[in-house]
Amino acid sequence: MVTVLDTTLNRPRPRHPEKAHRPDQEVLRKPEWIRVKAPVSKGYLETREIVKSNKLVTVCEEAGCPNIGECWDKKHATFMIMGEICTRACAFCNVATGIPMPLDAQEPASVGRAVAQMGLNHVVITSVDRDDLADGGAQHFADVIHAIRAAAPGTTIEILTPDFLRKKGALEIVVAARPDVFNHNLETVPSNYLTVRPGARYFHSIRLLQQVKELDPTIFTKSGIMVGLGEERNEVLQLMDDLRSADVDFITIGQYLAPSKKHHAVKKFVTPEEFKSFETVAYSKGFLMVASSPLTRSSHHAGDDFARLKAARAAKLAAA
Ligand code: SF4
């Protein structure tokens, strides 16, 4: 008699099953300007405790963000709502992929409580993609915004949303909840979309941002990209023009870092000088705010940047 042992039973599910078969990508050595300190401070540990005790998920952890030591020390965290499982499978992203759990009806209240406990002036809320939901999670986004307004009325709210592709009426629900900043990241230039962001459509994302302004011109709009994914400089400049055509206020540009050898390879480490040049060009194209540096992430320094954004708009209106 032969006994067959099923060794798959206790094996943890891979975080990115769709990437498991891919060949390992070449890993470039990080330049010294990209290195960050390990997160160990008292503020970091306090933030971690608030996140855990409210059973919340953060993109800071899920994306393996290099800024977590700095941000959590200052009690800046970006909450990721609607679970830890994403229905897309972008080649750059570290968030786990698969079939998500049903929405947690208690989550809006939990996020509101955590924001109040942390005493935040400004909070950033993002989510996984929820293509499985009829409205793409739009109503849940709105519920979270309302819960934060109720629990922490002085806190300004920035949302970083999915693209709500093929979810008619979803954007209107989110905009009606009146976030202070509506961020939707383009992530990369259009020529990279099929390999880097295959489930998304570049011009749909541009149009989404444009529609936010059409629906409510008082809401600030923001978008970000990663560089080092193989894009050409001219493509980045064209993308800036596309965002300005959609009246986007704020662009963020940061270095792509590969979460693993199975993710899209880092093709290049862009130098701090090149980031500075992108900043100069972007301001010349009319953005109210530009953040462009190797460690720029769309939620990095978001509170300070929001204050500068408001001041920039006030100055522009005064000069008109
Ligand atoms: S930059 Fe954003 S995602 Fe990264 S640690 Fe800071 S708040 Fe979190």
Outline of the structure:
This protein is of the alpha/beta class and 320 residues long. It is built from 11 helices and 9 strands.
Explained architecture:
By secondary structure, this protein is an alpha/beta fold. Helix content is 37%, strand content 12%. The protein has 11 helices and 9 strands. The protein has helices at 42-53, 59-62, 68-73, 107-118, 138-151, 170-176, 193-196, 202-215, 233-245, 272-284, 302-319, and strands at residues 78-81, 85-86, 96-97, 122-127, 156-160, 181-183, 220-227, 250-255, 289-292. The strands form 2 sheets. A 7-stranded parallel β-sheet has the order 1-4-5-6-7-8-9, sandwiched between helices. Strand 8 (250-255), helix 10 and strand 9 (289-292) form a beta-alpha-beta unit. The chain is globular and about 45 Å long. The termini are far apart. Mean pLDDT is 92; it is low at 3-9. The structure holds iron/sulfur cluster (SF4).
Structure class: alpha/beta
**Can you list the ligands bound to this structure?**
iron/sulfur cluster
Rounded to an integer, what's the Rg over CA atoms? 20 Å
Q: Sketch the topology as an H/E string, one letter per element.
A: HHHEEEHEHEHEHHEHEHEH
User: Helix count, per DSSP?
Assistant: 11
User: What is the overall silhouette?
Assistant: globular
Spatial separation of the terminal alpha carbons = 87 Å
Query: How would you sum up the major sheet?
Result: 7 strands, parallel
- Mean pLDDT across residues: 92
Beta-strand content bin = 5-15%
Strand order of the largest sheet: 1-4-5-6-7-8-9
